[in-house]
Amino acid sequence: MAAQNFQQYTLTYDQGVQGWPSFYSYLPDWMIGMNNYFYTFKGGDLYRHNVNNTRNNFYGIQYGSTIRSVFNDMPLENKLFKTINLEGDDTWGATLATDIQDSGFIQAGWFEKKEQVYYAFVRNSGTVPAGQDEYALRSLNGIGRSDSVVGNTVFFDLQYKINNIISVGDMLYFALPPYTTPQLAGQVTAINYDPLSGINNLEIDLTIPGAVPIPIQDAFFLFIKNAIAESHGVLGHYCVFDITNTNTSGINLFAVESEVMKSYP
Asked: So what CATH class is 134-224?
């Protein structure tokens, strides 16, 4: 049987809830309670716990606090989880994953305090080239078939008003029959649209990592906007979130909430 990697934790049991509420990252060699103090041994040294104000520092290593939970209201409805709202006295970093997406995140510095609640919009990390789960997002839009491709310029029929839908910096993709997984063509560097002069084309940077040559003139083109700047939240039926705090002093967290809206495909 192949060897498996297991994550090790130190667990604590709470008689009040009759369960194991906390997982600690530190791994002592021995533990003992004596005279109302908790002692551990590590590498031949003796440590007494809970006797200073520095939180999450064990054997000279500073850890963070992480809480995992789930938003699961109306589990049969597909929803957009748009924000994280924290009722407490400090901000936390957050990562979010649903049954459709696993790229949602918030940095601790993005929170704003409004009416005594810390509030932040969920962003998506995104990848270049895009991952398979990104093709179902609202940041993706189709353009149409190209008329021709010359060097780093993609020409379109005038019926496609590209100046209304695409921006410099967007990632341009193309799909070939039978139109399965799109491939990255490049990043948009210029939009040239002048219908009176018959001009309707995109200039792209072909040198970005992951870009591949466009093999035919009339491939179907689509684009994906910057995942962080254009995020609309994470899409799914439920949302598992992890929040992490690295403060070394004692803080309070009373509730974690999210603003959620139904998704209409």
From this structure: mainly beta
